[in-house]
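Lab notebook, bench 4. The sequencing result for the construct came back, and we need a structural model before the next group meeting so we can plan mutations. Quick request posted to the team channel:

Model the 3D structure of this chain.
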Amino acid sequence: MQDSDTTPPQGSRPASGDLEPRHDLARLRIDRTPRTTSQRWPLLLLFGCLAAYIAWKELPPLVSSHDPEVITARVQTRGGASSRSGVASNGYIVPRRRAALSTDIPGRLIELNVEEGSRVQRGDVVARLDSRELQAVLARLQADRVAREAEQERSRLALERQQTLSRTDDASRSDLDTARANAKAAVAQVASVDASIQEIEARIDKTTVYAPFSGVVTEKNAEVGEIVSSIATGANARGSVVTLVDFESLEVQIELAQTTLDVARAGAPVLIYLDAYPDEGYRGRIRQVWPTANRAKATVEVRAEFIDRDERLLPELGVRVVFVPESEANPTPPAVLLPRRALLAREQPTVMVVRDGVIEIRTVTLRDAVGDDLIEIGSGLIGGETVVLDADPTLADGDRVRLRRP
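Done. Here's the predicted structure in C-alpha cell form:
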C-alpha cells in the first residue's frame, strides 16, 4: 500500500493548525507616515547658551573656599556738619570747566590712550588720527625745497657773475636785470615752499588730540577705526573723541525759588549734602547768581562752589543745599576713625582695604589717638571703607579674601 502524499498543493493556504508562513509580507511594507524634524532646536540651544553666559557675567565673583579668611571692620566718622535748618534747595553737581575733545580736521582714529575714568595732565596725548597722507605730502615738499634751494644758489651765482661783468662793461644791462629777477624768483619759490611745509606741519599737529587741562575722562565718544571730526558728517562720523572734566571746577547748580532769592548773595555760606551721603555736609559758598530768571519755573539759577572736596564728588550727583548763617558756616570737618588693629607694621602707615572681596593696599596719614582702640586719619580714608584687622603680612594687593566680622 503506497503512502499518501502529505505535501499541500501549490497555491493552497495552510490549515489553521499548520505553521506560520515562512515570509511575513507585512514587514516589507514602506512606512509613508510623514516625519517632522524640528529645525529650531539649534537656534534655541544657541539662545540658551547666550542667556546662560550673560547670567554668568552678571553674577558676582564666586568666593573660593581656598581664599584666606580675614576679620574686617568699618572705618568710622564722627562729628562734622549737622545743620539741616534754614532755606534749602535741591540741585546737582556740575563742572564749570568741561570740554569735548576733537580735532580741527577729519580723519580716522588710530590711537586712543584713555578710558572712562582716566586721569590726564595738561598736554598729554589723548588720541591720534591717521596722518600718513599728510606725512607723504610733507616729504614731497621737503624734497621740493631742496631742489628750490639748489635753483636759488645757481641764480645767486649767476647774478654775481653778471655783476662782475657789468663792472668791465662785458655784460649788457638787460642781462644783469634778468639775473637779478631770476635770483629774486628763486628766493620767493623757496619761501613759498617753506610756507607750504609750515601749513602741512600744522595740519599734522592737528591730527593729535592733546588734553587742554588736567582732568578726568568722563565719556569716551569714539573707538579706534572710526572717523572723527569737529563737525560730524555722515552716519559713521564722530563729533568728538572724549569728554574731559576738570574735577577741581566741580560746583553745585541750584534752581532757587524766586520767593527765597534774598538768601542767595555772592559769598553767602552754604552747607552741601550729597544724596548718596546725606549724613555729612560739605562747606561751600555762593559763587554766582544768574542775571535772569526762569519764568516757567519761577526760579533763579544759583551756583555754589565747594570749600571742602574729596573723591566722593562726582558730576551729576544730586545734592541738597542749605543756606546757613555765618555762625554755622564753618563746622568742624568729620573725624575719620580707624581701628588700631587695621594698621600694618610698615615704614609708612598702611591699611588693607577690601573692595568686592579684593585686597587694596592703601597708605594713610595719622592724627591723634581716640581712646585705646581708634586713631584719627588725616588722609587716605574718607569713612565707610572695609579694612582688615590683624592682617596677615603675606597678603598682597589684588589678593582675594573671604570676610568674617569680628
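Helices lie at 41-58, 132-167, 173-205.
Will bring this to the meeting.
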